[in-house]
Specification:
The protein is of the alpha+beta class and 129 residues long. It has a single domain, classed as 2-Layer Sandwich (GTP Cyclohydrolase I, domain 2), CATH 3.30.1130. 19% of the residues lie in helices and 38% in strands. It is built from two helices and six strands; from the N terminus they run ββββααββ. It has a four-stranded antiparallel β-sheet with strand order 2-3-5-6, with helices on one face. Strand 2 and strand 3 form a beta hairpin. The chain is globular and about 45 Å long.
């Protein structure tokens, strides 16, 4: 049976809840529609988050991203909507979504949305030689 788009995100228990670690996902095939012209807008999404108690399940994320294909949305709105939905599902310690939209009218647009739990601080950066 073929999969269909969905707005539901599934999660699973973080197997290392006591640790801060980063999950990074590169999503090169995001598509939505320009709300003014109806033409497709293409973007690459980079989602990275430090999970708390829950992690997002990848197939449900794929089907969720697919649900935007036929929707009109401004770049800024859709980036923040996705960040809000993913964060609502996993309640990440920290989450960043970077949406790099392809050129439209000679302009590339990148939108970055971040969410952070109150009081959470990252570990100091380590510079390796």
């Amino acid at each position: 049976m073929p999969s269909t788009p969905t707005t539901q995100l599934e999660t699973f228990a973080n197997p290392e809840v006591e640790r801060d670690y980063t999950i990074r996902m590169h999503i090169p095939e995001f598509t939505c529609l320009c709300p003014r012209t109806g033409q497709p807008d293409f973007a690459t999404l980079d989602l990275e988050y430090v999970p708390d108690r829950r992690c997002v399940e990848l197939k449900s994320l794929k089907l969720y991203i697919w649900s935007f294909r036929d929707r009109g949305a401004f770049h800024e709105a859709v980036t923040n909507e996705i960040a809000d939905h993913v964060n609502a599902a996993v309640a990440a310690r920290y989450l960043r979504l970077t949406a790099r939209f392809n050129v439209r009218g000679g302009i590339f647009t990148t939108v970055v949305a971040e969410r952070r739990q109150p009081g959470w601080q990252p570990a100091p950066a380590v510079a390796l030689p």
